[in-house]
Amino acid sequence: MTTPSLRTLRGALRDRAEPAVRIQQARVLRPPDDDELLGVRVPAVRQLARAHRELAREDVDALLHSRVHEERLAGVLVLAERMRTARGAERRSLVDFYLARTRCVDNWDLVDASAHLVLGPWLVDGPEDPPAVEDVLDGLAASSWLWDRRIAVVATLALVRAGRFEPTFHLVRVLCRDPEPLIHKALGWMLREIGRRDAPLLVAFLDQHVTDLPRVTVRYATERLPAEDRARFVRARQR
């Protein structure tokens, strides 16, 4: 059953559709054949998600299971909005809801808009048992579903911002042989974020592991390092 709130949100998304944006989305996102793109700009979807942050859980579930790409994006963004103020049992409930539906989070933009904002806060201060953080990340990283693995990597952005770098380094070591370029890029992105906060630590990590890492990971990771360090690591990876 479609609720009035869900009908309102769906109608608002369609009202904001732009054909030119849809063409660009198809090129950048390369969605599966059964995906429907409306052509709604991401800031507009974010605005609607904020306005509908109190959407019923069953309506969020309907959005996540929709084959309309912007509806799934709105669904994960509503969860992210809810997570901002959630605490305690509600926070864990949102995480469980998200983790049970990662098959709906099936493109890089959906992962990157949600993993660090829905799963991330719980990783930072939710688990009572610290090994639980690594258990959750390792479980996602071991998945055959590409997007579970990217969720694991991108979720650590919240930990990096909290000054906790080891979970990211751990995943880099675990996933450095992953066959998917989208994982290689995500690893490099997270390493770059660590380097923004502690460049010497990133340099030390790369000194030890650079020859094990994909080339694109090294390129992304070293983007903000001094030119001489960047050139040294790129050369080392090309040997």
UniProtKB/TrEMBL annotation:
<dbReference type="Pfam" id="PF08713">
    <property type="entry name" value="DNA_alkylation"/>
</dbReference>
<protein>
    <submittedName>
        <fullName>DNA alkylation repair protein</fullName>
    </submittedName>
</protein>
<dbReference type="InterPro" id="IPR014825">
    <property type="entry name" value="DNA_alkylation"/>
</dbReference>
<dbReference type="InterPro" id="IPR016024">
    <property type="entry name" value="ARM-type_fold"/>
</dbReference>
